[in-house]
Each structure stands twice: as structure tokens, then as C-alpha cells.
Amino acid sequence: MNARSNDTERHSLAIGVWDNEGGAQVPDSADRQYGRRIEADRTWTVYHVFTGVPAYADGQAMTGLSRSKATDGMVSLNRRNDARRLVERKASNNRC
Length: 96
Hints:
The protein has 2 helices and 4 strands, in the order αββββα. It is an alpha+beta fold. The protein has one domain (3-95).
């Protein structure tokens, strides 16, 4: 392999990691707690990025998913966290 091929592979890997971790981060990146990963059987899992444990939604583990279902689930969970944190911040500000 030449240097150009190695650079291309590294770039592709970096984009894959970026994409699987939820894409571009918002200024408060702590709000992004869920990512997605491809498993050995080529299915997708939505997982908690700090623990690696599969996420649960509606009582079901978010494993064995298609890429699009995993993306939708990841975005939905992260948005739900964003909304919850916004409510908590407003309540905290009202107490001050």
C-alpha cells in the first residue's frame, strides 16, 4: 500500500467513527450520550457511549437493528436527553 491509500483508509475510518458516534457535536457534547455501532453479524446496536451497554427503548434492547433504525433510535434518544436537560436547566434557573 502506498501513503495515499493509508491516508484514505484513515480518513474513511475517522468518518465512520464520527458518523457512528452521532456526527457533529453540539456545543454541550455531554448531551450526546448514545452512539451506534455495527456488530460482527452486520446488524447495528444503539449504545450508551460512556458504558458501551446497549440502549433500551420501550423495554426493548436496541440491538439487531438496520443502520437506518439504529440512526433513528440514536437521534431520538439523544434528542430526548436534550429535551430533559433543557427542562432541568430551566427549573434550576427558576430556583436561583
